[in-house]
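Good morning N.,

You mentioned wanting to compare the apo and holo forms, so I went ahead and generated the holo version with nicotinamide-adenine-dinucleotide. This is what I fed in:
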Amino acid sequence: MNPFTYDQLPARIVFGAGKLAEVGAEVERLGAQRVMLISDQATSMSAEKIRGQLQGRLALGWDEVAQHVPVDLAERARTAATEARIDAVVCIGGGSSTGLAKAMALSHEVPILAVPTTYAGSEQTTIYGLTGGRHKQTGKNPVVLPRTVIYDPELTVGLPPNVTGPSAFNALAHSVEALYAPGNNPVTSALALEGVRAIHRSLPRVMAAPDDIDARGTLLFGAYLSGIALGTTSTGLHHKLCHVLGGRFNLVHADAHSVILPHAIAFNAPALPAEMARLAEALGVPGGDPAAALWDLAVASKVPTRLADLTGHDGLLKRDDLPGAAHAAAEEITVNPRPLTEADLLGLLERAYEGERP
Ligand code: NAD
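and this is what came out, ligand included:
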């Protein structure tokens, strides 16, 4: 085995159906007295249950959340947090709720207890993001890593299929890219491959029966492992492309993932024979083509497979939009296992636009 150095991230994890009931005890464990509770419309009923558990410890309820954490929203929430003299944040919801909690931790240096209800994985990373205008600024700071995470699959049962599928592919992409992204090591690869296995075996079941708690639990477990994989490695070609597409056209964050992932992997596969062999095994096709297996999983899970079907701020994405995106991505992608050009990226995006099986 090759030598390696690994900064393992600290966090307390409480996992299981019904564990929402333990938020109060976990807040007490953190020693918090003045909690800010962040939720969104979709998680308001669960937030109500948390309010009941916090009782006198609730200092501020905040239910305005937006994708990519707009700066003006973060500033308003920070002002309210200062006035309420908060000493901890509890957030319940998807990556957008967690993202706002991270903005609070960044400014107020308070611990976060996160209750994720999608598969985005932000609760396992030190990455934060804030958006002003059309520019998203991201950074890393250990202070934004949630101190406690409660994973309760019951909270994900109401997640609609059009969020569940792409969000699960967002998680899958974290694990897949962790196999080769800078920061990778044998521990992160082991976690990532188990994440792929868990998502691969549970996602079609969840899409067929959204209230199957066992399948939801396995999917959430896969997303948790994928979040660790992302949090301790970094992102690569696939995420950079999704980031550029999302930023330029204001796509829903998770939607680009299921479309791009098979094509990004098909492009990089020739440079990563050992990693791709392990990925193929984890995707249930030992000796087979992992890019095709990812595409087949996308089709089986009824998630988007064509860029042409995605809607941005100017309506459906157009073929003419692709050269600009390829140019921007080429400027951003400085490290990749296989050397690439702007023309390579345009070719990849065109194949993703048509939704061809790689
Ligand atoms: P999201 O938080 O915007 O949620 C997507 C939709 O699902 C929303 O409409 C939300 O209301 C709804 N929803 C959430 N939970 C629900 C539930 N239990 N039932 C019904 N509906 C529910 O989207 P997301 O994909 O979870 O997160 C995306 C954001 O997270 C982006 O801003 C992205 O950049 C960020 N992100 C950050 C990191 C990181 O490490 N910092 C990692 C991944 C994603």
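The two ends are 33 Å apart (CA to CA).

Happy to go through it together on a call whenever suits you.

Best,
F.
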